[in-house]
Design a protein that fits this description.
Layout lengths: L16 E3 L2 E3 L7 H5 L8 E5 L5 H13 L4 H6 L2 H4 L6 E2 L3 E2 H6 L7 E4 L8 H5 L3 E6 L2 H14 L9 H9 L8 H14 L3 E5 H6 L1 H12 L5 H10 L2 H6 L33 H14 L12
Parallel strand pairs: 3-6, 3-7, 7-8
Antiparallel strand pairs: 1-2, 4-5
The chain binds adenosine-3'-5'-diphosphate.
Adenosine-3'-5'-diphosphate binds next to α2, α7 and α13.
Length: 300
Amino acid sequence: MSVDPDKKLDLRRAELFDFHGVPMTHFFTDTWEDVQNFQARPDDILIATYTKAGTTWISYILDLLYFGQTSSERQTSTPIYERVPFLEKTILPVGSGVDQANNLPTSPRLIKTHLPVQLVPKSFWEQNCRVVYVARNAKDNVVSYFHFDRMTMTQPEPGDWSSYLQRFMKGKMVFGSWYDHVNGWWKKKQAYSNLHYMFYEDMVEDTGREIDKLCSFLGLSPSVEEKKQITDGVQFDNMKKNDMVNYSTSTAMNFKISPFMRKGKVGDWKNHFTVAQNEEFDEDYKKKMKDPSLQFRTVI
Ligand code: A3P
């Protein structure tokens, strides 16, 4: 990617537009050719999520599993968004996720994406890379997304909660429809065995159990102490205090509006949905979520 050093850092709220059938903002399409041509390596691990499903959480877990014992410098002075590049994100003139990924010195490379499955660069599939997908129930996901859009100055203006919820149901969000995203990746898992599909609710319920399952997918066997250290380190309260993973170093976010590490709960949707909104949402949900094998929990 060529970067124009005279171009100012553009942190204004972006507009949504249709991009190959998916609503996007320019931050995720500015270097699209580079994204599509990205050369994955066989040991790359792709972390895929719909926005606000627990991306940072799973990124930090993977980072600790692979690199927690290797370099304390990494843990104390490199923010998680530099350790785990966001593949399709470009902030001019700072740089692009593709460049960041290409410059990663580590192996394996941990790479994050929010792309719906059909837009993922084909080299990940050709190289048979391992993919970790995390999905979160729609109600908590939309609440978290709403607060994120309020505090992130590069996201489209969220408007009020009730219109935001309508927009979510219509799939008019950055990275498109939640319903299409979770279903698309679920279908992919049936055909592509190197995909580990996780649920945020399971991680909240029993983080240690989910780390065990993840390790068996990745072929890792951390020691008992190491696993305990990781499980403790990735608890919400510890991550909230950890400046390298809580996004306090991000210039695009306004923590006075809402913190990035906000609540970390299952069921916060109950504090946002009215009874009428909940009924309408459930009706609509039934029409869109037809696959009985994909079930979400909205309470645990
Ligand atoms: P809330 O806004 O509901 O609190 P992402 O990293 O994909 O942007 O997701 C952010 C969401 O994951 C936020 O949800 C954040 O609080 C939650 N989260 C991050 N780390 C967590 C943890 N250790 N335990 C529980 N939730 C966590």
